[in-house]
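QA checklist item 7 of 12: single-chain prediction sanity check.
[x] sequence parsed
[x] length recorded as 191
[x] structure emitted
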Amino acid sequence: MPRTESHPRLYLAILALWFVAAGALAASGFLATLVPPVPQAIIGALTVALILAGTLLPGFRVWVAGINLRQLIFFHVTRFVGIAFLVLYGRGELPAAFALPAGWGDIAVATAALGLVLLVPDLIAHRALLVAWNVLGFADILYAVGSGSRAALADPMSMAPLLHFPLALVPFFLVPLVIGSHLQLFFRLKG
């Protein structure tokens, strides 16, 4: 059976381009002009595209499978962005129904990810712990996306900070990657 070619530079370039495009669209003010359900549809499409790429493109699948487990978990330290949700809630700029569970949930998941990476020398030997963290982290991101979508549909202005730079990078860049990384972890930890 022939070996599947992986193209890490290409995938990293696409990732960098995605990041720059999301940042540029946010900084330009374009994302702030979108009204629900358009932002939610874009976030959903980005997430589905990422999942399909990991499923249908053998080279990309090989590359993702080669990412070190510790690095994949460490990526979730980005979820300390939950602190910003709490700050914005405190200023009255984000609704409690989104900011409190999403903020505290993300902080808890990020803290646990940091603990796993720094304090657990053999991650595979602690598979049950990893599965528990992954289930909680996945449930948290799904709840945050759902509550954010409900809040935006009920009152589009309530979620406006997430359509402006730099926070727009959370839904338009981080959220699909977080969901994709949880799914990758489920795949690796099965059995």
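[x] summary fact logged: The chain has one domain: 35-189.
[ ] second reviewer sign-off
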